[in-house]
Amino acid sequence: MSVANASAAGQRESLKEAEGLQEPPVNTQLVVRSERLTSTEFLNLLRSVDELHSSLIRLAPLGSLRFSSTDSPISGMPVLLKDNIETRDMPTTAGSLALADNAPGRDAPLVTRLRDAGALILGKTNLSEWANIRSSESISGWSAVGGQTRNPYDGERTPCGSSSGSAVAVAIGLAPAAIGTETDGSITCPASVNGVVGFKPTVGLVSRTHVVPISHSQDTAGPITRTVEDAAIVLTAIAGSDPADAATAEADARKVDYRAALDAGSLRSARIGVMRFLLDGYSAETRAAFEQSLTALRAAGAEVVEVTEAPADYRRIGGWELTVLLTELKHDLNAYLASTDPAQVRTRTLADVIAFNAAEPRETVLFGQDLFERAEKTSGLDDPAYVEARSRSLKAAGEDGVDRMMRDHRLVALIAPTTSRAWTNDPEDEDEMQGSASRLAAVAGYPHLTVPMGLDRGMPVGLSFIGGKWEDARILSLGYAYERVRPSTPRASYR
Fold it and tell me: Is a pLDDT exceeding 70 seen at residue 257?
């Protein structure tokens, strides 16, 4: 069976249910609707579409595009992977020339789960190099390996990151699903500004083994799709325990069939908290789209509750988070590099990567590596400053943050705009990033879903649903219900 034949029916169903989402380009729809494309023709079509947006680094070898016939809803679904997730048949670079030859010939456990469920792994998507942790001035969607991924709605505006290529590839129809990774905002932000669905699961629901790391406290992989239903299908496939990742010890006991758990009526009588304390940071246009979404939620039976006060230490979380990320980056990346083949990866430590970048002009042509340099100076996981920062940030974001707000107001979820419209890539432009809902869920390790909610000056913006630990099914169900009642908006156009 050809790739097109295997996935056509499922993709048509998903697109029908995506009413209100932005249309993909006409030539992309041929992938969905044709039932006569061979595997080679399918890949050639993907290449031609991708040339317009620079979302892909490489496609999988043709001979690897085989799937097992299963009863799984994901069987035959084409899936793309962010290029920090290992596969046995392609290099895994994290966008860095230091890892250009990194091909250890192994699948990450989440990839094994996808293949076993019958998914077709199409290839690797570009990303913000090293998942945006190399420099405080990094450019979202740019890597030395893949170049600049562009926002399909305006090429002069950011695709956000670090899962830039994954979000753009889904937005333009190269695949119905892609896997991104998030430490703080790296799934939800690119999904939001490219007009697609993105889901960051509870940390520990999905294995991180053989994924190029930043932080074992906050890293997770998750789906980027055109619909919440497709996100639920993908999550069901990739969730589960992994003996090599201690954080996933509870995953098998906690996971459910997330698609079966979706309930179009889940908004009825649901108490949902508006994180009003965040809204001043967003553009007026995004706030207007958000208010329209609140009206739709109320009409669907939700009880919308105003949460006006931020958690007590909310403004201090960012500083603690950075200490945690930089300390864990050195520890976790050194461990990852040590697991690679020294014949393929000659940079065996973070210090080696820093030296490689300093000697390689193609790596530093646009920005430096100040965060790498700061991480290299950290003192390890026993450092009292790190231990304190992790304890304080986790308490402030979780126990005294999301948990307290939901308990005090008797909520099932918190909502806010995910971020404002995509900003320009010009560092001198005043149209900069405006507002973000990602930090609390990221630091606490809690689930965070973004669903398209409207437009801001013709650019897509998303609505965030955030819940408590292991509340992944509930959050997906609320987003699924919202898809069906969200306000009608003019369609954004590709440029």
Answer: yes
